[in-house]
Amino acid sequence: MTSKVYNDLREQLDQYSVGFPSTPSGTEMKILEKLFTEDEARLFLNLSLSALKPQDLAERTGGDVTEITRLLDRMTDKGLVFRLRKGDSTLYSAAPFVVGFYEYQVKDMDQEFAALFEQYFQEAMGKRLSEHTGLMRSIPVNQAIEYSWPVVPYEDAKQIFKTKDRIAVARCICRVQQGLVDKGCGKPEEVCFMFGSHADYYVDRGMGRWISTDEAVSILDMCEEAGLVPQPYNSQNPGGFCNCCGDCCAILRSIKLHPRPVEKIVSNYYAEVDAELCSACETCMDRCQMDAISIAEGDAAVVNPDRCIGCGLCVTTCPSEAMSLKRKVGDRRREPPEKNSQTLSELAKARGTSLIPLAYAGSSKTGS
Q: How open is the CA angle 77-81-86, to the nearest 5 degrees?
């Protein structure tokens, strides 16, 4: 029988980001029981998305600060909490399931966990991801942008990199997970970027490595060649940046099942085809991750505007230069929030949840 603390943990996680929905099979509880001990679950329930010092948690729980610090560091080593170092202080915060401690399993994921997540995606998480827009956003691959129009920095991948003082790269959790369940696509894996304190955390845990801006741009070019969609976190100052495919990425997989993917992701561009130039070579169809392109009876490509997410992958390899990327204008444009925290707040508001839970009442002590 599942301990009450895991039920409480699931309810708390369901408040964060896109949530942590329950299933009839209880797959989500198997995930929690695999990742958390009961003591770790109890301590997590006293955390919030705002970073706290161990002393704060000791006051909140009545526990011993040394023991709490030891337990927090163990949870950090397991990728269950986020650790932030500021000067001489070390702070800890809760993490959502997605984007959060699921991604933090990238170096430790095994076949059992990969299979559990796949089952959970099919039962609940895929549907939940498709219901709530705004977690990630799609921006054009740089080669597809026409600089004849003003391009805001947060929609220009290379400009995003140039604003960051610390960049790390890590393997894509989605391609790692899909590979472990024999559904991998074979596309490059070391393509996910973290910035600032997120980069510190990834390198500190051995999940990623430091890279220069030049190497980041080089990897970005390789991602475009491989046909990956640039997806930064949905803010003007993102803490992370993924390069995704419709075969493996949990977000793209979920919205790909929707009849109108354009409604389920923040994107300010769309593809357009010049039928007179099109040779119907189908290269664009192979590149499109949303199945947005078909060949019409008149032997020219046709873009379905309901499915196009404006990544521009179809543009950069069109041999007849029939494809082009256009900017959305007026009320069709959607500006991302300025900060990551605002994105989480907006998601919580849309779902009617609270970001900061009350201190856990299930136990007044935390032990090992």
A: 90
